[in-house]
């Protein structure tokens, strides 16, 4: 994850994003909030005018027209309140649209950006923590946008409006309030600043807890089999304690603000009353913008304005938790969005082609013939090379972590239609080679050529379209069996999907499902056996019909009987294709054109099954049982 950004930068970025999403609606909403806040200060002026009218009439003894004046002021006040009600209703409705719309668009940006991230990101980040961005961080942001920001704006405008009115009526009383508010602001800054770091740690710790819980749910069978319940609970308790302590510290700092500010507000109310009373008794002329002499019509509304002023300061402090938590969530979301996307400098694309005489040309129709469209930057010409599946590796070096090489000087070639098998212990580098063929990772040194073209020049999407892959770990998605098979080729017809299932040997068990090919799958195909899920994965690769196929332990999860059933289909699937096979079962690699034995990232033996047996090296020991793969 990237380093933490300054909170001010996060706030600016967030508001910039809001204005980009709603360039008209957001300013209208802000206007409605400001208008509603300003109108909420009107009662103070109304009260001062009413008391002033009554006080003047009482002193003069003339009560004529007093009721009319008061009713006129009440009428004006009612109009203001109606406008305030309309304004409040409007901004609440608009904020609901802005909040949910922003979250929707942000989730789309996050998910779209996630699809462009390299495999390395998902290999190095906990999946539960990534999920936490879509749940906890988004929810913290929702609360901040929908509640905290409007409340902060309302309180801020109200404070400024009330302050202006207070200053207009009495400079000395306003000075008393300002001194108290400065003290409140210093305390808020001190406490709020102390909690901000803990709120960021809380969101991070929450992501860890969710990631661990997800991992444990996926591995419940393993936990039960090895009686690992207590150890799992201890590991969870450790992460949960970390979350508890960071949350406790964050909220402890923030929650003490309310009581402190409330008590300062009460003391301030008393001080204003005492100061006002002293000014009244002294008969001092009020030093203020208005120049009005101190009177009861000033002191009484001023006390109410002091409550309103302090109350809104308290409202700001009450939002500290939500704001800091929302900013922490925003920061984590922006960090994810700022991750470097997968780089692709390729410019060679895969196109439909046909022959016009001996020349290969591009065509919009689907012909069953694919070609690499290679624009040459030097002279602007374009050449077409038929896709055949000729793959060659030259002196490949690779390391996942700098300074820790995984592959050393690996070279191999696979001609169209050949079957190449990788054999070796876990960690020997077998799967790493297939990751490089798909450009999930880019090589540090050496070259990989596909049909004579450096794969670094081929667009990654086109390269992967030309390579099918059946992984050891199956991944099925929520949807029907038919939809999961069609995942390999979204343009495939139902008949083509059924043909692929028959080729893989999956048709028999699919027909026995409650709704056949329309049976709904959920939870990664939890209602299917591991072998059945693997057969669907093979069928999905078959419907893609690529010229190169990678089978990474493709039959490792299939029992011996099922393997015998599917072997014929696998042979049909591999026929005419360039195939790379990774397998622990030597029975699946005997008929390979070439077998490569890897050890610690180096090719130590190569040849056919018979040639390797004659060498009596490590492969011979594997075959005779003198050596076992780990």
From TrEMBL:
Pfam families for this protein: ABC_membrane (PF00664), ABC_tran (PF00005)
Superkingdom: Bacteria
Signal peptide boundaries: none
Entry keywords, A to Z: ATP-binding, Membrane, Nucleotide-binding, Transmembrane, Transmembrane helix, Transport
Subcellular location: Cell membrane
Domain ABC transmembrane type-1: from-to ranges: 28-325
Listed SUPFAM superfamilies: ABC transporter transmembrane region, P-loop containing nucleoside triphosphate hydrolases
Transmembrane segments: 21-46, 66-91, 152-171, 177-200, 260-281
Keyword rRNA processing among record annotations: no
InterPro entries attached to this UniProt entry: AAA+_ATPase (IPR003593), ABC1_TM_dom (IPR011527), ABC1_TM_sf (IPR036640), ABC_transporter-like_ATP-bd (IPR003439), ABC_transporter-like_CS (IPR017871), P-loop_NTPase (IPR027417), Type_1_exporter (IPR039421)
GO MF, one example: ATP hydrolysis activity
Membrane topology category: Multi-pass membrane protein
CDD domains for the chain: ABC_6TM_Tm288_like, ABCC_Glucan_exporter_like
PANTHER family: ATP-BINDING CASSETTE SUB-FAMILY B MEMBER 10, MITOCHONDRIAL, ATP-DEPENDENT PERMEASE MDL1, MITOCHONDRIAL
Protein name per UniProt: ABC transporter ATP-binding protein
Protein source organism: Candidatus Fimenecus excrementigallinarum
């Amino acid at each position: 994850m990237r380093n933490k950004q300054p909170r001010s930068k996060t706030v600016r970025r967030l508001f910039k994003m809001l204005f980009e999403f709603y360039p008209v609606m957001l300013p209208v909403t802000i206007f409605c909030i400001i208008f509603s806040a300003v109108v909420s200060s009107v009662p103070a002026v109304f009260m001062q005018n009413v008391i002033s009218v009554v006080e003047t009439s009482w002193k003069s003894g003339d009560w004529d027209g007093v009721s009319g004046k008061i009713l006129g002021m009440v009428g004006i006040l009612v109009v203001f309140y109606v406008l305030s009600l309309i304004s409040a209703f409007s901004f609440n409705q608009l904020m609901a649209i802005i909040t949910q719309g922003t979250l929707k668009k942000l989730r789309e940006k996050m998910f779209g950006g996630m699809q462009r991230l390299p495999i390395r990101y998902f290999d190095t980040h906990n999946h539960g923590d990534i999920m936490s961005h879509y749940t906890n961080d988004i929810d913290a942001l929702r609360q901040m946008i929908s509640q905290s920001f409007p409340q902060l704006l309302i309180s801020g405008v109200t404070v400024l409006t009330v302050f202006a009115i207070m200053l207009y009526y009495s400079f000395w009383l306003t000075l008393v309030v300002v001194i108290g508010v400065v003290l409140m602001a210093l305390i808020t800054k001190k406490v709020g600043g102390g909690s901000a770091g803990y709120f960021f740690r809380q969101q991070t710790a929450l992501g860890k807890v969710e990631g661990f819980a997800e991992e444990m749910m996926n591995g419940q069978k393993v936990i039960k089999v090895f009686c690992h319940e207590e150890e799992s609970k201890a590991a969870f308790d450790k992460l949960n304690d970390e979350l508890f302590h960071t949350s406790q510290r964050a909220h402890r700092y923030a929650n003490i603000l309310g009581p402190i500010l409330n008590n300062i507000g009460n003391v301030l109310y008393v001080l204003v009353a005492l100061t006002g009373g002293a000014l009244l008794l002294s008969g001092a002329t009020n030093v203020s913008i208005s120049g009005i002499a101190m009177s009861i019509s000033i002191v009484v509304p001023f006390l109410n304005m002091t409550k309103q002023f302090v109350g809104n300061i308290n409202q700001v402090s009450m939002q500290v938790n939500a704001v800091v938590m929302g900013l922490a969530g925003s920061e984590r979301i922006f960090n994810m969005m700022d991750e470097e996307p997968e780089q692709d400098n390729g410019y060679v694309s895969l196109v439909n082609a046909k022959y016009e005489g001996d020349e290969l040309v591009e065509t919009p129709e689907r012909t069953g013939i694919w070609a690499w469209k290679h624009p040459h930057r030097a002279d602007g010409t374009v050449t077409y090379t038929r896709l055949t599946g000729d793959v060659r590796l030259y002196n490949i070096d690779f390391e996942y972590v700098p300074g820790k090489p995984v592959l050393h000087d690996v070279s191999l070639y696979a001609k169209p239609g050949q079957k190449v098998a990788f054999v070796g212990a876990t960690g020997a580098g077998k799967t790493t080679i297939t990751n490089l063929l798909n450009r999930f990772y880019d090589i540090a040194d050496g070259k990989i050529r596909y049909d004579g073209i450096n794969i670094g020049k081929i667009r990654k999407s086109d390269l992967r379209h030309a390579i099918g892959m059946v992984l050891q770990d199956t991944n099925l998605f929520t949807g029907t069996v038919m939809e999961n098979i069609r995942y390999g080729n979204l343009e495939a017809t139902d008949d083509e999907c059924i043909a692929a299932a028959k080729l893989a040997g999956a048709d028999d068990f699919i027909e026995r499902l409650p709704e056949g090919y329309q049976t709904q799958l959920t939870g990664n195909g939890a209602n299917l056996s591991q072998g059945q899920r693997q057969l669907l994965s093979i069928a999905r690769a078959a419907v893609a019909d690529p010229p190169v196929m990678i089978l990474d332990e493709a039959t490792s999860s299939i029992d011996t009987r099922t393997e015998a059933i599917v072997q014929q289909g696998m042979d049909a699937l591999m026929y005419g294709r360039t195939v790379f096979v990774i397998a622990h079962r030597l029975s699946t690699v005997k008929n390979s054109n070439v077998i490569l034995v890897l050890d610690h990232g180096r090719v130590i033996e190569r040849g056919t099954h018979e040639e390797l047996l004659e060498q009596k090296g490590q492969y011979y020991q594997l075959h005779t049982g003198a050596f076992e793969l780990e």
